[in-house]
Write a sequence for this structure.
């Protein structure tokens, strides 16, 4: 597991992209948005880097 911090703002449709990630490597994707609970996902840089739709829950 790599310990490097990168940030990427999302676009108008919620899309985002990280460049220069190492191939065949596992990362932890941390997502934060004001008014929502933070999320963490384990992702692997394999054939399909798309993580799909990420549903955020309201903060309580």
């Amino acid at each position: 597991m790599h310990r490097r911090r990168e940030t990427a703002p999302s676009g108008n449709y919620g899309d985002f992209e990280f460049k220069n990630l190492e191939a065949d490597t596992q990362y932890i994707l941390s997502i934060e948005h004001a008014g929502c609970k933070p999320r963490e996902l384990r992702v692997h840089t394999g054939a399909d880097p798309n993580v799909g739709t990420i549903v955020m829950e309201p903060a309580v």
Q: What stands out?
A: The chain is about 0% helix and 20% strand. The CA atoms of residues 24 and 48 lie 11 Å apart. Residues 1-60 form one domain. The chain has one domain: 1-60.
